[in-house]
């Protein structure tokens, strides 16, 4: 008889959060360990976490363990269209919440969760997790186990690449996230406190592949000049504070997401455009939903029961579908370079900015996935 109730494949944030969350409801977990001796790399990614994700990390005792400079509150957000006057502004004060989101250092969060998993008495780290009645696949969008389980991944490539980097500005960010929707690119600046407190940003710049390659190869001075041209200097003078990274962008989902004795979570189950910053939030919401389904199961029902796992699939179907439609719709709306489309979306942004109830509803959707 296996000593484990659940085996988890994957070495990222969602896998660690799932292991800790399931251990809290009394399950014994075999969790895939990070490869020993793996070369250290600089992770320039930053994640935008909504309040629901932060609440999960608080329950897992991981949030307060994060270094202070590894998490920054977003107090305001400005979304700008092609024209300077077309913009939407959101504020935590108007939403009556402490923060619209929290920007978190990806590497720091991974390290904190990995350390917590190492100390959790009901979590066993193994290079190859032992057998269990239930297998959770959290290997990311390039998962190999997903196909072996009989699930296919329906993927639509955008033909765009995300360029990420850490930046430092010559003026304080004041907790304001900024985003420019400029056909055909989308540029986001996420306020951050690394490497310099109060004036750093995490950059996510969605560009056509050829443009992305040009900016990746550009000298730092040329890259910084490109950022200034794209942002109009609204965030101040920006300079690179390290390496640049890139990855291809796509919309995708797995079919199915559960089967007899297995379930997919995170990017192994779904992939969305990063323009709304909701990718990791979707994955952590998967963790919450699956934990609740397993905790509420009938005493006679096995953990790997297909009917039980379909409850999880049904619970996550609408939220993931809706977020995919929203991000895909926004991308297509702002990818058009046609003058008529440009005028329409610019007027639309300005109109919504003056409709307080609509703005509050849009912000409330992003606060919970």
TrEMBL record:
Residues 135-325 form the FAD-binding domain. InterPro entries: FAD-bd (IPR002938), FAD/NAD-bd_sf (IPR036188), Ubi_Hdrlase_CS (IPR018168), UbiH/COQ6_monooxygenase (IPR051205). It comes from the Bacteria. GO terms for molecular function: FAD binding. SUPFAM superfamilies: FAD/NAD(P)-binding domain. PANTHER family: UBIQUINONE BIOSYNTHESIS MONOOXYGENASE COQ6, MITOCHONDRIAL (PTHR43876). This is 2-octaprenyl-3-methyl-6-methoxy-1,4-benzoquinol hydroxylase. It comes from Ideonella dechloratans.
């Amino acid at each position: 008889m296996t000593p484990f109730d659940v085996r988890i494949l994957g070495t990222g944030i969602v896998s660690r959060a799932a292991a800790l969350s399931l251990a809290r409801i009394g399950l014994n977990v075999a969790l895939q360990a990070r490869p020993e001796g793996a070369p250290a790399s600089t992770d320039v990614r930053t994640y935008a976490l909504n309040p629901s994700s932060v609440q999960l990390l608080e329950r897992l005792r991981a949030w307060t363990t994060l270094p202070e400079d590894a998490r920054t509150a977003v107090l305001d957000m400005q979304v700008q269209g092609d024209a300077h006057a077309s913009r939407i502004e959101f504020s935590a004060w108007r939403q009556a919440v402490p923060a619209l989101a929290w920007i978190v250092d990806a590497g720091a969060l991974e390290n904190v969760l990995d350390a917590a998993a190492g100390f959790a008495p009901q979590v066993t780290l193994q290079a190859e997790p032992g057998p269990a009645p239930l297998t959770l696949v959290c290997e990311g969008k390039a998962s190999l186990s997903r196909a072996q389980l009989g699930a296919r991944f329906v993927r639509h490539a955008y033909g765009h690449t995300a360029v990420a980097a850490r930046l430092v500005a010559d003026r304080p960010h004041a907790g304001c996230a900024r985003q420019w929707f400029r056909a055909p690119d989308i540029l986001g600046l996420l306020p951050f406190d690394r490497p310099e407190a109060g004036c750093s940003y995490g950059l996510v710049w969605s560009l056509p592949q050829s443009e992305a390659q040009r900016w990746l190869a550009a000298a730092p001075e040329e890259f910084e000049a490109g950022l200034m041209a794209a942002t109009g200097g609204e965030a101040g003078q920006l300079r690179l504070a390290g390496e640049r990274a890139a990855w291809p962008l796509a919309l995708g989902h797995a079919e199915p997401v559960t089967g007899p004795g297995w379930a997919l979570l995170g990017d192994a189950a779904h992939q969305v455009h990063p323009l709304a910053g909701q990718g990791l939030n979707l994955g952590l919401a998967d963790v919450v939903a699956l934990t609740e389904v397993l905790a509420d199961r009938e005493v006679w029902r096995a953990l790997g029961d297909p009917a039980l796992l379909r409850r999880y699939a049904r619970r996550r179907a609408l939220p993931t579908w809706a977020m995919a439609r929203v991000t895909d719709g926004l991308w297509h709306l702002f990818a058009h370079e046609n003058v008529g489309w440009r005028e329409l979306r610019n007027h639309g942004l300005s109109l919504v900015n003056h409709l307080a109830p609509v703005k509050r509803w849009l912000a409330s959707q992003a606060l919970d996935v």
